[in-house]
Amino acid sequence: MTAPTETPPARINYAQTLDMGTKRVILFGVLLGLFLSALDQTIVATAMPRITQDLNGLSLYTWVTTAYLLTNTALVPIYGKLSDLYGRKPILMIGIVIFLLGSALCGLAGEPFLGNLFGGGMMQLVVFRGLQGVGAAALGSVAFAIIADLFEPIDRPRYQGLFGAVFGLSSVIGPLLGGFLTDNISWRWVFYVNLPLGLIALAFIASKMPRLASGLQARVDWLGAFLILVFTVPLLLALTWGADGNYAWTSPTILGLFGLSAAALIAFLFAQSRHPSPILPLALFRNPTFAWGAVARFLIGAGFLGAILFLSLYLVQVQGVSATKAGTATIPLTVGLIIGAIGSGQIASRIGRYKPLMLIGLVVAALGFFSLSTLNADTPYSGVVLRMVLLGLGLGPALPLYTTALQLSVKPWEIGVATSAGQFFQQMGSTIGTAIFGAVLTAGLTTNLATQFAAQAAAQQGTVATTLNSISEGIRSGSGGSGNQDRNAAPQSPEQIRATFANLRRNVTQAIETGDREAIAAIQNNKTLPAEAKKQLTDIPAGGVAAGVTAGFGQAYNAVVAAVNSGDSARLAAVAANPQLPAQLRARLSQIPAQALASPQARGQILAGIRQGLDAAAPAAAQQAQQQALSAALKGVDDGEQVALVSARATRVAFAQTIATIYRYSILVAALAFLATLMMPNLSMPTRQKGERMAPAHAEI
What is the DSSP annotation of 638-676? Predict the structure, then answer.
């Protein structure tokens, strides 16, 4: 085995021996492969609603992403070490092949010929997405290391910036392409589209890329690879399930996963200290650039993903952007990221230093987080755009410069493991940061929702105030309320709410005036109308309230006819005592003498008079009853509209306040990343002297 401090005898300096044309062809293939990996994370999200509908797998919705995340993150450091041992080219090609195989299988998930494999179509997709993640881990970890193989240190930042731009570009193209393919062809093409692009990348790499071997000769640390999987997978599962609310943080399942992960970490560190060629050499942590850079990458990962996720949530819940458009609504942030990544890389290559640019970027990022912490329910979209661009400009330099710093601080044959380790820490930071910020969101949102509903109730009166207070108490007690709403669903705007209730008023009016059964059914199915108001509209008779009153008069007359014709004064008295009869009729019936009932002629005259009185009173009574019922029902609708409008406002304010709080915590994350970066040595990049470059030489392809 070659000692780690000695230059491996088989190492070739590809940065000097390859001509620029070959380098560009290789770079194109690598960028295309990395683009596929980055694109896959954004393009699938747009198609997921259609996928879950077709495969009947809503319960496994989050697992489609979780499976990809688990395998991708866990295998990144393993691929980095393997690429140091066996060369970048074979590992990258294996990664692309596995990724394309996973893509093809994802597109076939749920097809009849697969039958009940893995329990059904949605579970098939979850398993195949995990396979995709296995391939994508190689694409991500090896691609960044290849830059260090192909280019001299002075040139690396500008090309690392291109990699950052690829990630930004994929976040723009992904949602648009995913929506187009899903709506116009099939969601399966969200996965099939990877195949032609991947084959092109594979062809470029196979034909033009040399092996890019470090020359390091050692055996694979299989125990370390196993232990890092056992450490990473349970930890990510625990954080994901805890943040999603699938399990309580103190549940035996979550605590057991954390315990298993901790035990695996201890065993991993022990194994790494004993193995001659470990997956993650612990000696790297004695390198201050690597150690402090890893801390900074971890913190930046938490802040970066948190910015994307919670900014999308703000755009959906406060700005009213639809969930499917939330991805493209963050384009200004992406533009800032691309400018920051490419610009910082170009400047670093010119001045020969990277640390000042990293520190400046973190200061700008902190300013971006501070500006986002001032968001409220009334911030105009143009103001949000400016904040997104500022944050993107700050976070952009983190993408190329930290990778450059890590690569410059280690030996050439350690570049693969150092690059993948940095990426591993960033991805772990993203997962852990998302879980922590998610907990802050859940706790803060509950408190803010309850407070906002109570505040709105204090400004209202009557039923509206009572309903809002009830919602506030329900949120505080955890028994329900607006806090249980779908956070991914775009809330209704005031205009939409008013349009909904205008339609409801039409249905209520039609139901009361005509008794229309469809209108009554629409009222009962309305989720915004209070239950008390619905109850009033349950028993509307056929023909409407007025027709019911007229029919009631007819029934009353029939009862009177039966009582009068019976000649029984006691029976007539019982009818007269019925409180449902008009008061004037009851008084008239009680005044009829008993002897009048004995004469058929007298009974006829009595009934004729009563009929005449009822006919005269019926229209007015029917109109009055209809008006009273309509007024009461519309009052309920008005109250419901007011509750809906005020609830929407309270929800928007609560979400804005909660997300602003998360960005206040993000300022602290950026400050800690700044301090960690400040501790890194202020190394300069080697400059290129005139005549130093060797003539291009043949390299084994």
Answer: HHHHHHHHHHHHHHHHHHHHHHHHHHHHHHHHHHHHHHH
pTM: 0.72
Residue type present at position 112: P
- Quick check: 369 and 391 in contact, CB under 8 A? yes
pLDDT at 395: 83
Strand partners, 353: 684
Q: What confidence tens digit (pLDDT) does each residue in 455-494 have? A: 888 887 777 788 778 877 777 776 555 444 444 456 677 8
DSSP helix, strand, coil percent of the chain (3-state; round to 5): 80, 0, 20
How buried is 308 (Cβ within 10 angstroms: 0-12 exposed, 13-18 middle, 19+ buried)? buried
Cα 272 to Cα 265: distance, rounded to the nearest angstrom:
10
Q: Retrieve residue 636's tokens.
A: 């309920």
- Closest to 646 in 3D by CA, of 399, 481, 489, 460: 460
Residue at token pair 């501790």: 679
Q: What is the pLDDT of residues 123-174, one digit of tens each?
A: 888 889 889 888 888 887 787 778 777 777 777 777 777 777 777 777 777 7
pLDDT reported for residue 484? 44
Percentage of the chain surpassing pLDDT 90?
Answer: 2
Distance (Å, whole) CA 138 – CA 548:
75
- Single-letter amino acid code for the residue at 662: I
Q: Rounded distance, CA 546 to CA 548, Å?
A: 5
Alpha-carbon torsion (433, 436, 439, 443), positive or negative: negative
Q: For the chain, what is the radius of gyration of the CA atoms?
A: 36
Cα distance between residue 624 and residue 361, in whole Å: 73
Coil, strand or helix at 124: helix
Q: Where do runs of H (alpha helix) occur along 490-599?
A: 494-514, 517-525, 531-536, 545-566, 569-576, 583-590
Query: For residues 542 and 691, what is the distance between their CA atoms, to the nearest angstrom?
Result: 98
